[in-house]
From TrEMBL:
It holds the Pfam family GDPD. One of its GO terms (molecular function) is phosphoric diester hydrolase activity. SUPFAM superfamilies: PLC-like phosphodiesterases. InterPro entries: GP_PDE_dom, PLC-like_Pdiesterase_TIM-brl. The lineage of its organism: Bacteria, Pseudomonadati, Pseudomonadota, Alphaproteobacteria, Sphingomonadales. Residues 323-351 are annotated as: Disordered. One of its GO terms (biological process) is lipid metabolic process. Residues 35-351 form the GP-PDE domain. This is Glycerophosphodiester phosphodiesterase.
Amino acid sequence: MKRWLGRGALLAAIAFLVLTMINASWLAPDPIGGPKLIAHRGVAQIYYASGVGRDTCTATRIEEPVHDYLENTARSMLKAQQIGAQMVEIDIAPTADGEIAVFHDWMLDCRTNGSGEVREATLDELRALDIGYGYTADQGESFPLRGSERQQMPTLAEALEALPRTPIMFNFKSADPAEADLLAAKLRAAGREVEKLGDGFYGHPAPVARMARLFPAAWTWSTESARACSQDYVLYGWTGYLPQSCRGGTMVVPLDDQWMFWGWPNRTLARMQEHGGHIIVTGPREEGTPNQGLLLPEQFTQIPSTYSGHIWAEDIWTLGPALRPSMDRRRPNEQQAAQAGLEQRRQRLAD
């Protein structure tokens, strides 16, 4: 009996040693380069995400503004790139006259002084709207972002002009694959070298799958495919085998779940890169709150220094300059206002 117990202990020790060596991050090749920030909707107004549902008007839940940029505008895209974003995420919205606007919501009623579905309006009608009309930080007592003529709803062409050499992550809000056909046609007509630049496409699986066929070398993913990759890797990554769902796919790693990913970060990165995959680190998961990107500069310290994948930045206005101070293009008064806003956010998140 003692002999069998001894053999069992030896085999267990050997198995533990083998698994440790297979998944040892420090034995993996050193990742090349540093982390790459994805600016969610460019420079945006940050909102209280707790309890937000699909139809919640987030423009009525914003923090006290510390800048006058509006999400998804050409001005905010360019600024995001200037202050440290390596990629900018934008939302596309086809119009009634066959053009493409850049706008997040399905309806116009929340953020603008218009009403109805975005897709039922022409581009000229959308361009005439005040897209800062609905933003309030005090439950409607004031609307500090109304009336800015600099911030019309942008066209796809303006987005491409703002970011001619910066990768864009295009978000499909619809399940209609015809929107992928329209976007692909517009990109090709504009001479956008999607695959060479490293553009990405995500959203509903149907239009994403269509983009994958139209641009086979482009980064394409959906929430469903990323969830499958992450879950499969947590279950099977200990074997050293990269699940099929991760090959050429996208792995999303919440900040507080990094410990669950075998070989994190170097070995995980090496496995994904070997098979043409991508990794995105997001903010921590919170009950009753949609998954967001990073909101605080100190969250960078929770990510290993060797990590060289993508990081989803909810607030590029503060995170970009925090990660790369040499790229801080904000004026002194903007920096001071940003710091004051961060202190208020820290207090709110701590409550």
